[in-house]
Amino acid sequence: MCRIIAHLFVFAVEKKAIVCFNFGMANEKTHGTMTADNHAALWHGRFEEGPDAEAVAFETSIHVDERMAFDDIRGSKAHAEMLGETGIISADEASAIVKGLESIENDLSSGALSIDYSAEDIHSFIEATLTDRIGEPGRKVHTGRSRNDQIALDERLYLRRAVPALQKKIKNLIALLACLAEKHTETLVSGYTHTQHAQPVSLAHHLCAWGWMLSRDDSRLADALKRIDQSPLGSGALAGSTLPLNRELVAQKLGFSGVTPNSLDSVADRDYCIEFSSAFALLMSHLSRMCEEIVLWNTTEFGFIELSEKWSTGSSIMPQKKNPDFAELIRGRTGKVYGDLIALLVMVKSLPLSYNRDLQEDKESLFDAYDTCLSCVSVFTKMIESASFRTENMAKSLEGGFSNATDVADYLVRKGLPFRTAHGVAARAVRMCIEGGLSRLEDLPIGEFKKCSELINSDVYDFLSAKACVEERKTTGGPSSARVKEQIALLKQIAAE
């Protein structure tokens, strides 16, 4: 019984539409006559029987890797040019291949050509379409390469193209936070440890903290891009080629600084997928922490921030609700990206060299992590840009909680008292306030202060206001307005790079 699939309808995951697995039949928008031979699986020569329908549906990856179509074309063009320049194929054949690939690229861009989901993967689709268009020379495009080194190249080209778009969004967010901070260098708010009042800071200082978190995310992505700046093409299935390939020429054409040094490692390596996904996970952890603070700040109890109605939702049962759902969704989607990273780590665990089909599963996790980060950074930026800060409630947060107790200790240290002793004196002053029904150290009479230490004089009150507590913290990276303005300038510089 013939198992060649004529019409197998499946739901394409990304397209969310019905697509047709139709071996040997042309897509309505394609140009040229497609033949069954051209569109059989690239490995079909070894087999007498065609694949089972369920097997095809299970192993095909084109619905995931189609986003790398232009990267695959770019790599194939450089490879064909090299084959022609080294004399492995004729110059005319190389020229025909390049022109054919360019026509595919143009038609995909314009919509004149649609992806044929009957193909096993994006490599198969492009090679088959090329052969349909230019004939016999199209069969030579795969000379000296394997899909193993081809996909390793495509992924690198894709990441080099896609990651800078995410970096740009991160830098836009850093720039926004710096601008918001610039407006709030005088807006004071309680800083927290253990979600309890700790020490006064400015809102600008807090926003800068968010900015520095994001700056590290941008830096990590930049570092990861450096480590994929080598071309793996020419590594073949695992052992290179007996043909006189010029790997360095291909690398040069594609803008790589060099080539990968070991063919076995070149096709087995997925460190870059894990490294980028790790950077994506850290980025999401930062967004999640920032969103958690927004959720807290948005509560009636805190009341520090008012989210725009454009970036809030209501309740189907409680008419009064205005929920910070987008902050919560970003926080929730962080788990997806963590899962993508874990999936990649588990995928390569105990995987022997070199290529194994397990590695096909890298793309879905990598792309999902990237897509999630891209949308979450964009949404967070718009959400925070349209929000307003309720500075009056931030000022109220400084009342009570004795967040200036450390300043009493520092005051005594400046008078020569050992810090540990000064710490005990400040703690006694706090205890006296609590026992006396006072909520602020500023309200403790000087006579009571002196019971704690004779070194305390009336000038102690000069150090207890929230403004004094902030402005006296002039150490590098501290919350004083001068130091925060330095941070803002640095963050703006990072965002502009």
Sequence-ordered SSE layout with sheet pairings:
Blueprint: E1 8-12, E2 17-21, H1 53-59, H2 62-65, H3 69-85, H4 91-110, H5 122-134, H6 147-183, E3 188-193, E4 196-202, H7 203-226, E5 230-231, H8 247-253, E6 258-259, H9 263-268, H10 271-297, E7 305-306, H11 325-348, H12 362-385, E8 388-389, H13 391-396, H14 405-413, H15 419-435, H16 446-452, H17 466-471, H18 481-496
In brief, what are we looking at here?
This protein has 497 residues and is mainly alpha-helical.
List key phrases describing it.
two-stranded antiparallel sheet; mainly alpha; 497 residues
Describe this structure in words.
The chain has 497 residues and is mainly alpha-helical. 55% of the residues lie in helices and 6% in strands. The protein has helices at 53-59, 62-65, 69-85, 91-110, 122-134, 147-183, 203-226, 247-253, 263-268, 271-297, 325-348, 362-385, 391-396, 405-413, 419-435, 446-452, 466-471, 481-496; strands at 8-12, 17-21, 188-193, 196-202, 230-231, 258-259, 305-306, 388-389. The strands form 4 sheets. It has a two-stranded antiparallel sheet with strand order 1-2. Strands 3-4 form a two-stranded antiparallel sheet. A two-stranded parallel sheet has the order 5-6. Helix 6 packs antiparallel against helix 7 (203-226). The longest helix has 37 residues, at 147-183. The chain is elongated and about 100 Å long. The N and C termini lie far apart (63 Å). The relative contact order is 0.10. Residues 1-36 have low confidence and may be disordered.
